[in-house]
Write a structure and sequence with these properties.
Helix content: 25-40%
Number of strands: 27
Strand content: 15-25%
Number of helices: 20
CATH superfamily of the largest domain: Histidine kinase-like ATPase, C-terminal domain
């Protein structure tokens, strides 16, 4: 090993020196100025992609929201321009940007060029009692991460203007007498920089979702969204809830909720730890119960807590405790019945909490969860006490809630038992030929070659078995009429041995879309034992019905097999036409007519094709099994929705829809009907 000029050189096997950088005292460096954000945006915004870019928008909105909450303005306008720039306008006091004697700097330098600087660090609550923007990062970080950033501020009788490009101020502070009288406010317009973010095309849905949520938790404030649809032309949408979360819960619950929405609020003082300072928290919650809708949302200092944190823990604990106590008091539990869980409550709960505190501990800068211990304790005690009183004062509502929660609980437990039963039935990797009645496997283990023929009954199975290539073609007979999986519940479906046996043979598991058995969706395409799943039935009414029922089963339990193109239908010939020693097979009336037309003047014989069970092995191989001559109809992914529609129409519970369809379309099929 050689040492030279601050680098280590290692000799390789050929004696060649290879340079390696040293790690010494001069190796340490610090990012400065705009680079602190531009080179590490994910540290501030949580992501350098679209999510981070969206969070920058919310940072600027947060400052406007804080002003509105303090009573300064009732309109916040956000504009999305065609060039992907964004503008936020408020009616607040306008942040100070002039000379700061204490700091010996201009305030605009502190606000837009210094991280962790702002008017919310004093701790005395004089400026903002309940603040969303806490960390002094938003304005500065967004400015640093922008291609350009323009600030126009009206306050103190003056209009102030600033222009930034890629984190650097251009032209300094412009100050002139205001043209708006005593009106104050701010306009910030910026364009996120593609050198910082990988994507800056923030969708309209983000703006409308965020602004609606903010309207919910800031009662009486109008949030106006303007979208530039073409050059200089804008569409406008307003969001406003005069009664805040109460109006929102009423909207979510819709018509005929199980109970009417209620609204509770209180203020408490406390501390997270004995050695921590005391702070104030304002708690508010609105909820109702519904057997149609389930929504739970938490907000803190106007920020939507997507991941919950303290309020979510408090709400779960209080509702489970209060409802469990009520059920025990009213003797609603059956003997030895397990207590309720929050999932049983949540399935029927529409609840929105909206809390504010003078001190907030967010889990990170993206503000998606808080971990304030006192907030959790205060909210738990408040909700538990309120619920106890509510159940006493509203006995009829309490009865409805208890009954619905117990229905949810027992439904969940039934689903869980079903899940365990299904897992037991479908688990294991033993030799399925010894476990599934009448299933005939093929010899090859090469999944890319294996084909499964699903046939109806023993006679068809016999014919297919005699004509197949046993090397790569397996057979699964359907014994009796298969269950209509579109109408049946999962418990009934999985009691059917026909269905569970077929699922065992497929090997890929099931996709069950049920909120009570989410973990049952153990579908794994890698475990599919077949390259083709071929439905092979007679070309008659009964055969078509069985085919449809099998397709329905696959659509409901393993839709991915259809979407990925693994499912086929074996097309059986309708007619066998013989002329001398040559034979043709016609798969439709048109094909028959075309063949007959070509035999004009010759003597020929036409026979209606028999059922699969009556066909000769040679014919079965030629028409149904041989890859070179058979006709397989691939069930295409784009057909899935249309198929589902007609499954539901023809096999579902919509009797009137089925009658209307037959009345409108039945005449097209009269000639095919057997009405002799």
């Amino acid at each position: 090993m050689l040492l030279h000029c601050g680098f280590f050189y290692c000799e390789d096997e050929k004696g060649m020196a290879q340079k390696k950088a040293s790690y010494g005292n001069e190796s340490i460096s610090a990012l400065k100025g705009a680079d602190r954000v531009r080179k590490r945006p994910s540290v501030i915004f949580g992501s350098d992609g679209l999510e981070g870019c969206e969070h920058a928008v919310f940072e600027i909105m947060s400052n406007a929201i804080d002003e509105a909450r303090e009573g300064h303005g009732s309109l916040i306008t956000v504009t999305r321009f065609l060039d992907k720039s964004i503008q936020v306008e408020d009616q607040g006091r306008g942040c100070p940007v002039d000379w700061n004697e204490k700091e010996q700097k201009y305030n605009w330098e502190l606000v837009f060029c210094e991280l962790y600087a702002g008017g919310k660090y004093g701790g005395d609550g004089d400026n903002y009692e309940y603040s969303l923007g806490l960390n002094g990062l938003g304005s500065c970080a967004t400015q640093y991460a922008s291609e350009f950033f323009d600030a126009t501020i009206w306050r103190d009788g003056f209009k102030y203007s600033l222009h930034f490009e890629k984190g650097e101020n251009v032209g300094g502070l412009h100050k002139e007498p205001t043209d708006r009288g005593k009106k104050t406010g701010s306009i910030f317009r910026w364009k996120p920089d593609l050198e910082v973010f990988t994507d800056i095309d923030i969708p309209v849905d983000y703006y409308t979702d965020v602004m609606k949520r903010q309207a919910v938790v800031n009662a009486g404030v109008t949030f106006r969204f303007r979208e530039e649809t073409s050059a200089g032309r804008f569409s406008t949408t307003d969001f406003r809830y005069d009664n805040g979360i109460l109006d929102y819960v009423t909207e979510l619950a819709g018509e005929e909720p199980l109970t009417q929405p209620v609204f509770w609020q209180t203020e408490r003082k406390g501390r997270d730890r004995a050695d921590k300072p005391e702070y104030k928290v304002k708690l508010s919650v609105s909820f109702c119960f519904s057997n149609r809708v389930s929504v739970v949302e938490h907000y803190h200092n106007s920020s939507w807590l997507e991941h919950g944190g303290s309020p979510e823990k408090a709400m779960k604990s209080a509702f489970v405790s209060a409802l469990d106590a009520y059920l025990k008091q009213q003797n609603k539990y059956q003997k030895n019945e397990a207590k309720i869980s929050f999932n049983d409550i949540q399935d029927a709960l529409v609840l929105v909490s909206n809390n504010f505190s003078t001190q907030t501990s967010y889990e990170n800068q993206t503000k998606k969860a808080i971990n304030n211990k006192f907030v959790q304790e205060a909210m738990t005690d408040f909700l538990r006490a309120q619920l106890e009183v509510y159940f006493i004062e509203n006995p009829q509502d309490a009865q409805k809630i208890a009954e619905q929660v117990l229905i949810n609980k027992r439904s969940r437990e039934t689903a869980e038992r079903t899940r365990l039963n299904i897992k037991k039935k479908l688990s294991g990797s033993m030799d399925i030929s010894n476990r599934v009645q009448k299933f005939v496997d093929c010899r090859t283990k090469d999944v890319s070659r294996r084909e499964l023929y699903i046939v109806e009954g023993d006679s068809a199975m016999g014919a297919v078995k005699l004509s197949r290539d046993a090397e790569y073609q397996g057979i699964m007979p359907v014994r009796g009429k298969i269950l209509n999986c579109l109408k049946a519940d999962y418990a009934k479906i999985f009691k059917s041995e026909i269905i569970t046996d077929l699922l065992k043979v497929l090997g890929c598991g099931v996709e069950v879309k049920d909120k009570h058995v989410k973990d049952l969706a153990a579908f794994d395409l890698e475990n599919l034992r077949w390259n083709k799943v071929v439905i092979c039935t007679d070309a008659d009414v009964d055969g078509f019905q069985i085919r449809t029922l099998i397709l329905t089963m696959l659509y409901r339990l393993t839709p991915t097999l259809i979407q990925k193109g693994y499912v086929y239908i074996a097309e059986s010939p309708l007619y066998e036409i013989t002329c001398k020693e040559k034979t043709w097979f016609a798969y439709s009336d048109k094909e028959k007519m075309d063949i007959v037309a070509g035999l004009e003047g010759k003597k020929y014989d036409i026979q209606r094709s028999k059922g699969l069970g009556e066909n000769e092995p040679d014919m079965m191989w030629l028409t149904t099994m041989n890859p070179a001559t058979r006709r397989l109809i691939k069930v295409m992914p784009e057909d899935v929705e249309r198929t589902a529609y007609f499954f539901d129409l023809l096999l579902g519970d919509d009797l009137q829809g089925r009658k209307s369809h037959i009345a409108d379309n039945g005449y097209k099929y009269l000639e095919l009907a057997d009405i002799s």
